[in-house]
Design brief:
mainly alpha
């Protein structure tokens, strides 16, 4: 396995734990991380960018339900 494969697998697994059942979000977050990494960023920065994408997506009103809204407000 090369670094990109490990990064992709880590992001996919993390998003599945964070936003279960949202395959599209996992795929896009993985692409964000890989693009960042390929442009010369560190793995840590690539993961932070993927995290930023997932946070942005999950905080968007179209993706919230009442219970998640309360949780995200508490941890934000």
């Amino acid at each position: 396995m090369n670094n990109e494969q490990v990064l992709a697998e880590a992001v996919l697994t993390w998003v599945d734990l964070t936003a279960p059942g949202n395959w599209g979000v996992a795929e896009r977050a993985t692409q964000v991380a890989l693009s960042c990494y390929r442009e010369g960023s560190t793995v840590g920065e690539a993961c932070r960018r993927a995290n930023g994408f997932v946070e942005s997506w999950s905080h968007h009103p179209a993706h919230m339900d009442a219970d998640r809204d309360v949780v995200f407000r508490l941890i934000s």
